[in-house]
Amino acid sequence: MKLSPDQTIFWQHGFITINLTIVTTWALMLVLVMAAALITRKLKTDIHISRWQCFLEMIVTGINEQIKEVGLNNPEQYIGFIGTLFLFIGVSNICIIFPFYTPPTASLSTTTALALSVFIAVPIFGISKSGLKGYLKSYLQPTFIMLPFNLISEVSRTLALAVRLFGNIMSGGMIVAILLSISPFIFPIIMSALGLLTGTVQAYIFSILATVYITAAVHDSKKISKTKSITTK
Q1: Fewer C-beta within 10 Å: the chain N or C terminus?
Q2: For the chain, what is the domain count?
Q3: Cα 60–Cα 88–Cα 202 angle in degrees, nearest 5
């Protein structure tokens, strides 16, 4: 039993390796880009719209509302990043209904890359709101003694994002494989149905946690900027 799609290697030369994770990831990205292009090429603003446009608007509206509920007042600034995370993870997990498919999120390299994207995006959004100096000062709150703990928190939550998603998806795939060897007809169908629900929930949790981290960075930076301006006055 292969625990990760990384173990299925199609081509390797030196340190360059093309495995199942890379192939599946690029295939999913191509499908998402093509689907977005097809759906958005004939957008309408009247009452009569296509089913695909209606479906897309439901997704965009739902993501915007979730971003607002977390605490970001201008979701349009963040939906490009957060929405991409949700759609990629969600689609990669939902595609388990296809036979012989292994989601790239079952690879620790994929989940680590997604977590690192969040790790990089958080300071970018924080700096964009209050500048580099204001964002860096947030690591000294409420006192400079908290600097090492705040830095450890940044690293640990990134690690937690990667391991949580990887563990849930990999364990689900292993359970299906084990049940398939025991009872090849009944249990795998039930577990695949549960896997669809679990995969969607994992995409939601990952994107919501990313939103929470971005919100914390933006709000902490704003508080410091306001405090500084009040003190100056």
Answers
A1: C
A2: 1
A3: 90
